[in-house]
Design goal:
The chain has 70 residues and is an all-beta fold. The chain contains no helices and six strands. It has a four-stranded antiparallel β-sheet with strand order 4-3-1-6, with no helix packed on it. The chain is globular, with a radius of gyration of 12 Å. It starts with 17 loop residues before the first strand and ends with a strand. The model has no long low-confidence stretch (mean pLDDT 86).
Length: 70
């Protein structure tokens, strides 16, 4: 099984502070390519992070309401 990291697309890095708002999928859920998996909250907007591939969400390494790096 190949693991793929979810990364914040550079064009969606609005603002200077980012926080994981919530996961839209649970561990074990099937995910289609381009389907939103998580929401990021910035100081300017809420941004959905899409899956880069079809697959299954295996881990959630960041808890909701946690600050993440830009």
């Amino acid at each position: 099984m190949k693991l793929i990291d979810l990364v914040i697309p550079e064009d969606q890095q609005e603002g200077t502070e980012l926080e994981l708002g919530k996961w839209l999928k649970a561990v074990g859920d099937a995910v289609k390519q381009h389907e939103p998996v998580a929401e990021l909250v910035t100081d300017k907007a809420v941004v959905e992070i899409p899956s880069p591939v079809d697959g299954v969400l295996r881990e959630q390494l960041v808890a909701p309401d946690t600050e993440v790096a830009v």
